[in-house]
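Lecture notes, part 5. Sequence design as translation. It can be helpful to think of inverse folding as translation between two languages: the language of shapes and the language of residues. The source text, in structure tokens, appears below.
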């Protein structure tokens, strides 16, 4: 880590803003000539406290020591680990590929620019991956289909990847496919997809993890395509598509057991939509088309 500034008091994050900065450069006319003034546009983080403002450039790490013991932090243009406390605070990665963990407390987290990894906590009030290909790290039993009932409400934004992988626990994740529209806001993965303009979400996991979409086990649905090396690193994914909502979900094949189970009639009725959508493309693993399956 480079330079760090420590502030004391309840400084709040206002915004990132661009300012024109004048810097002295080396004269290109002749030796001994006056230095030339160079004009550059740089991004600064604006913090304020009791009517006082401070603008900090991207080379300085900022720690705000708050009255309750919290430590709001603002990273730099480098890649960093930003870790909170058990208090409510603001954690902002700014630039760089950061790993952010708010720990306990009702935090506000923003990854900023870069491909960040942010640890999910149901108590957080706003979690924004920011620009880049950002990953939400989840563990335990997480029901994101009930996100409106959580403190995070609709404030889970700009995530392209949800990962249960590598944490050595048997995780359970349930999500509502319609929520993907809100989560994948800038759709940074679109350049890797099918070129159809769909919102793209990637789900990573291990063999011991479980994934359900709208309450239905992923192994009860069949993908429209498999063995996709999405990132070019050898990790294979299967594609599940909702044409109605325009959503493509790429699921880590380590999560897929190959179980040839078929949806029960009760599960099918609970999962069906009134118009053609997810179920038309996420077909149950059965050759029987008597229920209208393609």
């Amino acid at each position: 880590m480079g330079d760090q500034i420590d502030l004391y008091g309840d400084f709040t994050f206002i915004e990132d803003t661009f300012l024109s900065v004048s810097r002295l450069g080396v004269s290109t006319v002749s030796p001994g000539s006056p230095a030339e003034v160079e004009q550059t546009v740089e991004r600064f983080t604006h913090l304020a406290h009791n009517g006082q403002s401070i603008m900090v450039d991207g080379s300085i790490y900022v720690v705000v020591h708050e009255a309750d013991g919290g430590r709001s932090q603002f990273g730099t243009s480098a890649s960093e680990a930003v870790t909170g406390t058990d208090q409510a605070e603001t954690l902002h990665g700014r630039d760089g590929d950061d790993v952010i963990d708010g720990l306990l407390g009702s935090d506000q987290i923003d990854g900023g620019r870069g491909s960040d990894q942010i640890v999910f906590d149901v108590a957080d009030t706003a979690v924004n991956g920011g620009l880049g290909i950002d990953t939400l790290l989840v563990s335990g039993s997480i029901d994101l289909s009930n996100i409106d009932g959580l403190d995070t409400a609709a404030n889970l934004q700009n995530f392209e990847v949800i990962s249960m992988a590598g944490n050595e626990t048997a995780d359970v994740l349930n999500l509502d496919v319609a929520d993907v529209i809100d989560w994948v806001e800038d759709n940074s993965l679109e350049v890797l997809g099918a070129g159809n303009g769909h919102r793209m979400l990637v789900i990573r996991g291990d063999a011991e993890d479980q994934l359900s979409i709208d309450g239905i086990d992923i192994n009860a649905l069949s993908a429209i395509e498999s063995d996709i090396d999405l990132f070019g690193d050898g990790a294979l994914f299967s594609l599940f598509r909702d044409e109605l909502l325009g959503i493509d979900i790429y699921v880590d094949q380590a999560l897929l057991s190959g179980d040839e189970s078929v949806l029960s009639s009760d599960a099918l009725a609970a999962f069906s939509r009134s118009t053609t959508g997810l179920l038309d493309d996420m077909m149950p693993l059965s050759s029987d088309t008597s229920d209208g399956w393609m």
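The translated text above is only one of many valid answers, since several sequences can fold into similar shapes. The two ends are 56 Å apart (CA to CA).
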